[in-house]
Structure formats: C-alpha cells, structure tokens
Amino acid sequence: MKRTGWSLAKLHSYSRITFKLKIYSKWTRRSPNIWAAVFTMSSTERKRIVVTGFGPFVGHEEINASWEAVQLLPESISCNGVDYVLEQRMVPVEYGAVDQAVEEIWQSQPELVVHVGVSGVAKCVHVEKLAYNHQFRRPDNAGKFLENNTCSLPQHGKANVLRCGLDVDMIVKVVNTICKNCVAAADSDKPQNATIASKNVGSFLCGYIYLKSLDMDCNKCLFVHVPPIDKPFSTSQTADILYRIIEQCIQQISPFERQ
C-alpha cells in the first residue's frame, strides 16, 4: 500500500505538471513575442535619455549633419554609476511631426532630452541657451505654415522666451577642455573650440522643437546646433562632442534626481 500510495502521488504531480505545460504551450503559441514584451517592459523601467536629429530640408537636401552625428551615439551611457538607455530619434522637418515627437518623448518620462539640428553658419557646436516664441514664418517641408507665426504653449501660454535651466556656460567650459585635443586642426596654430554658448537657436524647426520641449521641462532639455559635416568636424568628432555634452547634462540633473 505504501508503494502504491507513493505512485499515485507521483502520477498526480506529473498530471498537474503536464497540464501546466500544455497551458503554457498554448499561451506562448498565442503570444509568440511574450518574452520580447517582457524585455521591452524591463527596458522601459531603465533611465532613458532621448536625443533627436532632424531629417533633410532645403539647403541640406541629401544629408542632415545632425542626424548623422546622433546615429553614431552609443545605445547606452554610464555616468556616476548609473546606466542610461540612449534613444535616438529622427524628426522630420515639419511642425506637425515636431508636435507629435515632443508629445511622445515627454510622455515616456525621460531623464534628459537633447535636440540636435544643423546650422550652415556654425563653425563649431553651438549649445543653445533659449528659444523664442515668435517669427516662425518659414514653411516646413510639407509646405505648412505656423498659424500667426507663433504657438500657444500648454505650460507657458504665449511666452516670448523660454530659457534652459541647465548651466550652458559650464557645459561649454568643461566640454571644450575635454575635447581640446580631439578637435584641434592639424594645419592650424589657432586653437579650435569644440563648443560655444549661443542665444540664437533660430526661427525655424530648430527653435520650434526647443521651445516646445522647454515648455515641458526646462531643467531636462537642451538644444545643440552642429556645423555641416567636415566644416570643420567629421561626423565622428561631432558625435563625440555630443556625447560629452550629454555627460555634462547628466552631471547637472543627477543631484535633482537623488532628492
């Protein structure tokens, strides 16, 4: 009897396991991407940084130096013992596309947002201090104009100017020191700065996306203008400068995150 009881118990246990395996198999067949979903959920819980670049537009029809540099950034960055996922996103040069991108980016609650655009007149990387809410007169790539050349902001209404809450001067100072050697021109005795602080983000989509993001959180947002490729920096040099800028932004926002 003892042996028979043991066998019945084992058979009962085996039946339960077999039943659960069948249920699991049926469930996974219905949801073949279940593990992908699990890993995606896990990744969304990690601290995120979003960096955007723009697509082609008039004057830069074939290639946009901003998106080329952003694409060379790594998929993650570690700073002060914290790992951040670095998400790159290309934004079409259209007002509607910017509106959608800004909304989606900030809904995901990123730790930092860095927008990057190209400037045909820049001789180094310009780190922008502010954005203006006026004079958006140019049509976008879709031929659309911004009504009344301005926009009504959810948080700040029709404020004329929004300023970045990060210490842009400090970012520029540190990055210029770090990148001093990597951007030096081989055929020139004149030192080349990697970055410069700027108050002229412009009145096109660069200024528009910065304004919209500053309205969301001015302490976790920055806009950077890069020069055209090889004028004077290669794409890899520009990407390295962007990386160093992101590092300094993290240094500034980290104390607030710990409070």
TrEMBL record:
A Pfam entry, by short name: Peptidase_C15
Matches recorded under InterPro entries: Peptidase_C15 (IPR000816), Peptidase_C15-like (IPR016125), Peptidase_C15-like_sf (IPR036440)
Q: What EC number is given for this enzyme?
A: 3.4.19.-, 3.4.19.3, 3.4.19.6
The main enzyme category here is: hydrolase
Top-level taxon:
Eukaryota
The answer to whether keyword Metal-binding applies is no
GO biological process per UniProt: proteolysis
Q: Gene Ontology terms, cellular component aspect?
A: cytosol
Q: Which CDD domains match?
A: Peptidase_C15
Note the SUPFAM superfamilies from the entry.
Answer: Pyrrolidone carboxyl peptidase (pyroglutamate aminopeptidase)
Query: What are the GO MF terms of this UniProt record?
Result: pyroglutamyl-peptidase activity
Q: Which family does it belong to?
A: Belongs to the peptidase C15 family.
Name assigned to this protein? Uncharacterized protein, isoform B
Q: Can you name the source organism?
A: Drosophila mojavensis (Fruit fly)
